[in-house]
Amino acid sequence: MSEPTPPSYRGPIAWMAQNHVASNVLMALLILGGLASLFTRTQFEVFPEVDIDTVLVNVVYPGASPTEIEQGVVLAIEEEVRGLDGVKEVRSTAVEGSAIVAIDLLLGADPDRALNDVKSAVDRITSFPAEAERPIISLVNTRNEVVTVIFYGDADEATLRKLADRARSELASRKGITLVEVAGVRPLEVSVEIPQEKLRAHRLTLEEVASAIRLANIDLPAGEVKTAAGQILLRTQERKDFGREFGEVVIRANPDGSKLRVRDVAKVVDGFREEDYRSEFNGKTASMVRVFRVGSESPTSVSDEVRAYLDEIRDELPPTVQVATWIDWSDMYRDRIDLLKRNAYLGLVLVLVILGLFLEPRLAFWVTLGIPISFAGSLLFLPGADVSINMISVFGFIVTLGMVVDDAIVVGEAVYARRQQGLSLLEAAIAGTREVAVPVTFSILTTCVAFAPMLFVPGLMGKFFRVVPVVVISVLLLSLTESLFILPAHLSHKMPKPVELLLWPFIKVMGLFRAEKVSQGLETFVEKIYRPFLVKILEYRYVTLSADIALLVVTAGLVAGG
Question: Is 160 helix (H, G, I), strand (E, B) or coil?
Answer without folding.
Answer: helix
